[in-house]
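Exercise 7b. Backbone tokens:
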């Protein structure tokens, strides 16, 4: 007679359970995070819907999506091991990929099409076309095309080289080999030839060539470990599973067939919905059953799968679109000035055409015989008009010819100069050793070249906490078990040195990371579970070792008798907890989908994993159902305190619950991350009820995620509390000093974190974000009306505090709040009700009155919503910095996104504009490189406007003295080369190398960064002053030679050469006056450009076929020529020099004061020179 108990019978159904108890994701975005982190979801496949930043609708939307059954119209049908039949109805994409943009045939038309998206290029193309018409030909036909052709060619060569590299990479990728099942045996096949429906076999450390559904693996339970670093940047191993129905099928020995019905290709790398019919059974497939292209198979000898998505339809390729492009603020402002210059150009052309019309009317009777405007052609027997088309058309032609002559008023060279300067700036940022992170061996990365100068105008920084301000290297510090606080105050030196280890086959097995232990707790853990305290501690550490998704890996050491266990997992929190359990004698040795092996105080025990509900951002907890060696079944649960206390049975152990809550508060107050651990023993009926519900939910074709979540909630109830853990996430080096420098620079730092409020506040104090002098305003509400009331009260309080301590300007805005700064602390629940409604305006008003804003328990979309809140209501520049996938939305929303190369993978880096290893590097990036880049680019834009306008106005003055005929004294080749050779190189070199202040000064006085906030280097006032100076200098250049040679017989080409040389020397000396740091390259380019101009003019005038042959040789022989050059330079630059001296002497700005201090640094090495800075004020917002 069978004497087994009902619970013992459960072990007979373990193989049947193994398929259903594998880690089915509770949602499309589930991730095993051991605490307060939140995972971001990509919903690009849901269609263009307005983003609700405040609501939690994102996840519910995914759940509702899973409730829809896949019908034939919305699905792809895949015949397993039958690619011919699979592709019979619809020819699915092949596995060949192409990341290159161009082919040999399409390169020229497509590249030109993309380049002509710049309106200025179309403008110059129209100019070149107009110049080809005989009636409008001012320059030679070839000469008029050269500037545009040069710019297009340089860009095309760059694009062609980049695309060649893509082609080469594509060829290597497509020709890689994989094992494909052909005629019951696996044969090598190129990746590009793989088809949907084929069965492929992947071996250890090989890359997956396409998206495939797992059929079987070397593991008897069907588990496979993959690394997704190529897909999402995360280096930790993830587990994938084959269904039991296909586990035992061996493709080489038996025919494998079936039908997979799956969703159409989409970008959601965390979701997959499908079902499979095999051997008459219909089973559901989820994200844990598919391995995506680009993943690597790790710690698994082999895995077999069927191709469901190939080539461009794989999720990796669909996500290969890159981050949204951003334009710099300076370039946006520049476009307004270009519009004005266009209007000014139109005005010049209108003046010339109107004056020409008047002149033609006045001299209409003389036009037939004027030698310089002969209308009649007498060379033939019949007199006819010679190049004259009537008064009306002549005016139109005059206008169009004016546009051609004055075309460089819009500086075409400015665009390519800006690109080259940005490349140069990026090179020096990348090479900066002060932004090199030695521990991670990572240099600064410049991933977006078009917003370098924006780094000099940042007003708001939105920072993640975990992994950005902190190291994200979790260390177990203390625990509350059974109401007793084991705070790790004393460390056993002997145990600390040796650590816990076990012996297996004569070899020592030791955890890779050593954890500090509390002697008292260690003693209880070793004493067994006979006592009440020992039983509590036993169950607590068993929960830490078992309730996770950690994979133990055996690592060899130089000592052959010693092996290390490296615990791999997706969450640093989980890793810290498992290492802590191992240190106290509960060492996780082995994990499969069906069981785990834990060495408990030297005794190896096997626990059957009967069920696992992974962590998700809705429940904020995870649970595992274990079959214990004593045949009992227990559910272990761990999670955030906010959700755990809602499922704990408060009628049990009331005193322990109260003590644990007090310990949790104390842990959070010192900045520790906390988790609550609980347990419940299941009866036979409870387990069977859960098992049947789990089976139904995990195989459901509709609403699977919702049903799984419901099943999890049903088992995670009436939990008996075991205790809580405290994990320390240490601040990164230099974070307090960095935040202090940034705030001194006038930058507002907001911290957005998923951690609980107490933890965030503690980190705020330790990072100097919060100080004891600050008044904290805390907004924690659970309804819209309570949020409204809290915000109204907070606004009144903040205004009172800042009004008492600050001064108010004429507009009523508070100028300073130095005595009583205010800190706003708000939680994610309140933001749910505030964002996306009328309360947003109140939150923004309150935040503007606060020195610091700290947002706790916020979801990824809420982070993006807070950035959007500021961007929509102010013109200030925003920067977001983070290290994890949950920061991607925030990084892409901000004007500038910075990714930290941290412990949570590289998704933030891949979505960012700039990337670095440590938060403290932000100080160097903004205060040094940001300041330099903004100053250089602002000056370069104004200088380009000036140098081109000077040249155009000289041509304009000449037209006024030549009967408005648009003839030009300056050689057409000199006109073309002016922007390309004569003046372009110096401005590029200065734009890359010039430094108004040295690094030490900028770091010592962070307030100097305020120059960017005040737009001191580029604004409308500077633009108009530059234009006035331009008019003066052009008049001097034109009229001094005109008056000097008024009565002479000099020809137009000779005086044209004089004007050319005068303009080139003048604009280069103008640049030289503004150079702050001279070096050999600056000298070479400025003086070399002047010499190059002389050489080019000599060569051009030495060519007999060109107009003005030998002109320079004739005029340069006279002393008057050199006297004119000297007079032009002195007269043109004296006003600028005088104004500059007076301005710097009587009303110097911060930068000029600091520059003077640098000059006197040698005299006072002790640093006695005091530098008084302007008060940094908030400029009015839009």
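Sequence design result:
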């Amino acid at each position: 007679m069978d004497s087994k108990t009902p619970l013992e019978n459960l072990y007979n159904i373990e193989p049947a359970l193994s398929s259903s108890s594998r880690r089915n994701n509770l949602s499309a975005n589930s991730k095993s995070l051991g605490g307060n982190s939140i995972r971001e979801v990509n919903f690009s496949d849901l269609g263009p819907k307005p983003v609700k930043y405040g609501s939690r609708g994102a996840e519910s939307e995914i759940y509702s999506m899973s409730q829809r059954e896949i019908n034939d119209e919305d699905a792809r049908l895949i015949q397993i091991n039958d690619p011919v039949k699979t592709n019979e109805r619809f020819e699915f994409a092949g596995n060949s990929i192409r990341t290159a943009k161009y082919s040999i045939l399409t390169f020229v038309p497509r590249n030109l099409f993309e380049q002509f998206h710049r309106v200025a290029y179309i403008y110059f193309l129209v100019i070149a076309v107009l110049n080809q018409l005989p009636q409008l030909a001012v320059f030679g036909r070839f000469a008029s095309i050269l500037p545009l052709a040069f710019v297009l060619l340089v860009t095309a060569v760059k694009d062609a080289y980049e695309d060649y590299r893509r082609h080469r990479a594509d060829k290597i990728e497509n020709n890689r080999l994989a094992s494909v099942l052909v005629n019951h045996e696996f044969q090598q096949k190129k990746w590009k030839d793989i088809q949907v429906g084929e069965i492929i076999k992947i071996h250890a450390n090989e890359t997956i060539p396409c998206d495939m559904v797992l059929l079987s693996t070397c593991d008897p339970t069907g588990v496979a470990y993959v690394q997704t670093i190529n897909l999402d940047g995360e280096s930790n191993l993830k587990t994938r599973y084959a269904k039991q129905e296909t586990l035992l099928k061996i493709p080489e020995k038996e025919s494998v067939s079936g039908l997979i019905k799956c969703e159409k290709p989409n970008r959601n790398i965390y979701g997959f919905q499908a079902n499979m019919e095999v051997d008459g059974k219909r089973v559901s497939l989820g994200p844990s059953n598919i391995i995506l292209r680009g993943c690597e198979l790790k710690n698994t000898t082999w895995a077999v799968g069927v191709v469901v998505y190939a080539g461009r339809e794989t999720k990796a390729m669909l996500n290969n679109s890159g981050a949204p492009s951003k334009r710099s603020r300076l370039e946006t402002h520049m476009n307004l000035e270009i519009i004005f210059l266009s209007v000014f150009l139109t005005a010049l052309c209108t003046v010339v055409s109107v004056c020409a019309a008047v002149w033609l009317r006045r001299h209409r009777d003389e036009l037939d015989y004027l030698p310089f405007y002969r209308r009649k052609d007498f060379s033939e027997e019949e007199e006819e008009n010679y190049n004259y088309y009537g008064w009306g058309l002549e005016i139109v032609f005059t206008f169009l010819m004016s546009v051609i002559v004055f075309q460089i008023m819009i500086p075409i060279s400015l665009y390519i100069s800006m690109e080259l300067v940005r490349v140069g700036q990026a090179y020096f940022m990348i090479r900066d050793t002060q932004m090199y992170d030695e521990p991670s061996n990572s240099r600064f990365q410049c991933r977006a070249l078009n917003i370098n100068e924006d780094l000099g105008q940042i007003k708001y920084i939105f920072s993640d906490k975990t992994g950005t301000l902190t190291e994200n290297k979790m260390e177990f510090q203390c625990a509350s078990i059974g109401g007793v606080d084991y705070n790790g105050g004393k460390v056993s030196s002997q145990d600390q040195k040796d650590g816990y280890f076990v012996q297996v086959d004569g070899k020592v097995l030791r955890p890779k990371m050593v954890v500090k232990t509390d002697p008292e707790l260690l003693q209880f853990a070793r004493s067994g579970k006979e006592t009440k305290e020992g039983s509590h501690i036993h169950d607590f550490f068993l929960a830490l070792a078992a309730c996770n998704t950690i994979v133990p890996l055996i690592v060899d050491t130089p000592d052959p008798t010693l092996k290390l266990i490296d615990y791999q997992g997706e969450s640093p929190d989980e890793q810290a907890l498992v290492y802590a359990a191992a240190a106290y004698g509960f060492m996780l040795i082995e994990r499969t989908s069906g069981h785990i092996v834990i060495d408990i105080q030297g005794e190896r025990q096997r626990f059957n994993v009967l069920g696992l509900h992974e962590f998700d951002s809705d429940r904020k907890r995870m649970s595992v159902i274990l079959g214990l060696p004593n045949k009992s079944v227990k559910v272990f649960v761990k999670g955030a305190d906010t959700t755990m206390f809602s499922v704990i049975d408060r009628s049990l152990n009331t005193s322990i619950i109260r003590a644990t809550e007090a310990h949790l508060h104390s842990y959070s107050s010192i900045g520790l991350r906390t988790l609550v651990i609980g347990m419940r023993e299941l009866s036979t009926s409870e387990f069977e009820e859960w098992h049947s519900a789990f089976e139904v939910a995990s195989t459901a074709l509709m609403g699977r995620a919702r049903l799984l979540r419901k099943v999890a909630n049903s088992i995670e109830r009436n939990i008996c509390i075991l205790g809580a853990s405290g994990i320390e996430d240490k601040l990164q080096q230099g974070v307090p000093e960095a935040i202090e420098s940034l705030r001194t620079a006038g930058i507002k730092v907001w911290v957005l974190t998923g951690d609980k409020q107490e933890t965030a506040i503690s980190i705020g104090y330790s990072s100097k974000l919060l100080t004891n002098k600050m008044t904290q305003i805390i907004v924690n509400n659970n309804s819209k009306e309570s949020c409204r009331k809290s915000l109204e009260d907070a606004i009144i309080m903040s205004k009172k505090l800042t009004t008492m301590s600050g001064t108010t300007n004429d507009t009523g805005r508070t100028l300073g709040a130095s005595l009583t700064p205010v800190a706003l602390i708000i939680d994610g629940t309140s933001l749910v009700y505030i964002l996306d409604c009328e309360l947003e305006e109140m939150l923004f008003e309150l935040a503007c009155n606060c020195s610091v804003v700290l947002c706790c328990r916020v979801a990824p979309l809420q982070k993006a919503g807070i950035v959007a809140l500021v961007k929509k209501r102010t013109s200030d520049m925003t920067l977001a910095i983070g290290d994890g996938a949950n920061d991607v939305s925030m990084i892409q929303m901000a004007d500038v996104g910075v990714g930290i190369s941290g412990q949570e993978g590289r998704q933030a880096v891949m979505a960012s504009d700039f990337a670095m290893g440590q938060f403290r590097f932000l100080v160097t990036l903004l205060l040094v490189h940001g300041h330099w880049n903004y100053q250089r680019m602002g000056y370069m834009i104004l200088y380009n406007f000036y140098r081109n306008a000077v040249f155009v106005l000289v041509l304009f003055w000449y037209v006024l003295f030549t009967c408005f005929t648009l003839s030009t004294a300056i050689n057409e080749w000199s006109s073309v080369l002016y922007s390309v050779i004569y003046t372009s190189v110096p401005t590029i070199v200065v734009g890359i190398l010039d430094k108004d202040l040295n690094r030490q000064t900028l770091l010592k006085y962070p307030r100097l960064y305020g120059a960017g906030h005040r737009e001191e280097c580029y604004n409308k006032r500077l633009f108009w002053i530059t234009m006035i100076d331009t008019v003066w200098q052009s008049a001097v250049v034109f009229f001094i030679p005109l008056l000097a040679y008024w009565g002479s017989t000099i020809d137009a080409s000779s005086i044209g050469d004089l004007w050319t040389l005068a303009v080139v020397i003048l604009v280069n000396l103008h640049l030289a006056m503004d150079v702050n740091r001279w070096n050999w390259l600056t000298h070479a380019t400025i003086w070399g450009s002047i010499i190059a101009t002389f050489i080019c003019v000599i060569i051009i005038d030495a060519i007999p076929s060109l107009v003005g042959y030998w002109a320079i040789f004739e005029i340069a022989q006279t002393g008057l020529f050199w006297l004119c050059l000297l007079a032009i330079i002195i007269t043109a630059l004296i006003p600028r020099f005088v104004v500059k001296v007076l301005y710097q002497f009587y009303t110097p700005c911060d930068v000029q004061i600091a520059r003077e201090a640098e000059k006197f640094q040698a005299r006072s090495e002790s640093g006695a020179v005091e530098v008084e800075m302007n008060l940094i004020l908030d400029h009015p917002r839009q």
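Instructor comment: Residues 808 and 814 are 5 Å apart (CA to CA). The mean pLDDT is 81.
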